[in-house]
Amino acid sequence: MDNDVTVTVSLTLKPDEADRFCEVMLPELQKQTRAFKGVKSARAVRHAEHPTRVLFIDVFDSKEDVGAYFDWRKSTGDLDLLATLLSEPPTIEVWPTMAGSPG
């Protein structure tokens, strides 16, 4: 059975921070995420009609890898920095892969 876990993180950025985040910060954050042990894939999408909204869609090998990833992001100060750029708290959801689901 596949133990993959998909994590979605929905952000609503402050209007004056959205472009800088997407153009400057996001590429480096994605590069770091893809290099983290246990990350199978990492994507980010920006809402076409609401450009302050960004959705991260990351797939991890396991729930333990998800925990290790967020512990690491917290230890680097990235989560605290991100909080200063948001107009509301992020929505984080964890989606374990269902048995028999095609990969």
Automatic annotation (TrEMBL):
It holds the Pfam family ABM. One of its GO terms (molecular function) is monooxygenase activity. Gene3D superfamilies: 3.30.70.100. InterPro entries: ABM_dom, Dimeric_a/b-barrel. Transmembrane segments: none annotated. Keywords: Monooxygenase, Oxidoreductase. The keyword Oxidoreductase applies. The keyword 4Fe-4S does not apply. Residues 5-94 form the ABM domain. SUPFAM superfamilies: Dimeric alpha+beta barrel. This is Antibiotic biosynthesis monooxygenase. It comes from Lichenifustis flavocetrariae.
